[in-house]
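Weekend entry, working from home. Most of the wet-lab plans are on hold until the incubator is repaired, so I used the time to fold the two sequences that have been sitting in the queue since the last round of cloning. Logging both here for the record. First:
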Amino acid sequence: MNLILQGLTAERNVIDRIAALAGATGIVALTATAFRCEGVTQTADIKAAVDAACLAAQLDYAFVKASLQLADFKLLAMDMDSTLITIECIDEIADMQGLKPQVSAITEAAMRGEIEFNDSLTRRVALLAGLDASALQRVFDERLQLSPGAENMLAAAKVAGLKTLLVSGGFTFFTDRIKQQLGLDYAHSNVLEIVDGKLTGRVVGGIVNAEQKKLTVAHLCAELGTTPANAIVMGDGANDLQMMGIAGMSVAFRAKPVVRAQADVALNFVGLDGILNLFR
């Protein structure tokens, strides 16, 4: 196994100390702030010690197979809000109504897994009733930003031959535009109902919840002639856990504790392109 250590900054003496915890036989500098510790041993006790040391040093870590390559995978599936992009779109839409605190509180509870997603989305969207649909374009133009490292990650995935999927409990207004902007292969999300230029406070059709996200990944893998074992799935909230659970590699990005605890890899400090350091 290899242990990948990386951060926004990284002191070599700290890297050496953490590598020693895992019994590394060698250390290779990948960049000035990313290191591959080779020949490590992974046990529950070692993982716990590395986890604590990395948290204290503000480093991300991952135990990976020494031979792992990005091209071993066939699909990169990503959540949108607070994963591929930095905002929660529905919270920013609500801000146009002066209702961001109320909607954000429901969003946070849903991401922690405290509220069932369908109920949370229905309640949040209802609060948007009557809002002029032009608010959606304002959010896209003025507030939507890609997460750090997103473009580097996607460029490398395309070079390696992976298909890309944006699957979201958010809205097609945003996923369709991001898909076009970034040249993604697939996108799937919810449709906001708009009548006479205003939001009705309802979603058209079924809700893209945790189960639907998982089914979307599974069905797309089948279409591509592969299985979810050959998919990398990235997310940050409880609504992402089911699709992450069937993936060959699950990545929690700046995620809630319940998600970090179940993911194969957690990126708490570096950008999305931090996953690239995991591969040969």
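Second, folded right after the first finished:
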Amino acid sequence: MKKPPTQSIKIAIPIVVLSCGIAGAWALVANRPELEPKVRTNEAPWVETITVQPQTLKINIRSQGIVKPREELTLVPEVAGKIVRMHPNFVPGGFFEAGELLIAIDPRDYDHAVAAAEAAIAEARRQVLFEEAQAEQAQEEWQALGEGQSTPLAMHEPQLAEARAKLKSAESELANAKLRRSRCDLFAPFAGRVVEKQAGIGQYVQIGDSLARLFATDAADVRLPVPAEQLGFLPFDFVSSGGGISRETGVMLSADIAGARHRWQGRIVRAEAVVDETTGLLHLIAEIRNPYQSEQGGVPLLAGLFVQAEIEGREQREVFELPVGVLNSMQEALVIDGDLRLHIRRLDVLRREADRIWIESGLTAGERVVISGVPVPVEGMKVRVQKTTPEISADDHVADADADADAGAAR
């Protein structure tokens, strides 16, 4: 029996499609483009370098602190009474000179005590004179009429001793009365300012009451924290001086007041006895003389002001300056020799700053240091110099070093 025509078509279509696919694949393979082999070249990488020269550097240590008065005290009375007089500038912020009368307490009760003590002295002196006369008379009478050994009582010796003791007691009472009277007047122990006033005229005060807070204006102090590793930059031998300041060192303080930068000159006068165990910092004390006078920059150095400090450092010779990023984590840099070969060299870092690194040793004058272009350095590999930046001047100069005292620069 003959198959229907539709069944034959179903069998023929897949055969035709498969044949066309095989023919197309053969045509692609036969007509593929010829690939030309490329020869791989191993060219030396291009690098960018700088030429270094030794410099003389003056490293200043930067710190910060809060201005504190040299002396600060609370004024309290040592006697009770009513305030009858005050200094005209006895107000918060008022100035006064050393030895000026600040507060006077009503002295009448104490004047009366002085007068009574003087009267007691007069009475005691009269009694002493009387007993001396009695003793002299008893001595004469005993020599004229008496027989045997005289007794102290008969010679008025105890009576005279008692009178003299009472005289000394009266003199002591007078001295105490005068002392209490002198304490009615409270004088300024130093030239200074009034921070806070807590009393007024007519007020009755007791012994120990707080009348005012005062501070001295002849000098101000600033505690400056410095990392222990930076003490070697100071212009004296901190170790041989026993941890003290062997000689005074200059310091420049600065702060922004009323939108302008102001500066005050001071000096490092001492160091505190211990290193802060929590921060590892040693505090140096900067002293500023006459902080409220016009010669200190025209603006007073106010107590409580936060200031930046730059402490004068010693000169460091034969140091090299490198940009940040030249050294790796192992403090190694890439140096090129005369044959344009690369060398990995470990350097001794004197100080790291925000924008530069100071090298103490490991480089020589005129050497070229790679600053970019070698992602994977290999010792002795050949390189090509793409660009050389201008040389860093070899002339001696003084550079101010930026250092954050709390972070601590690496050495």
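Plan for Monday: verify the second prediction. Residues 47-57+317-388 form a domain with the conserved putative lor/sdh protein from methanococcus maripaludis s2 fold fold (CATH 2.40.420.20).
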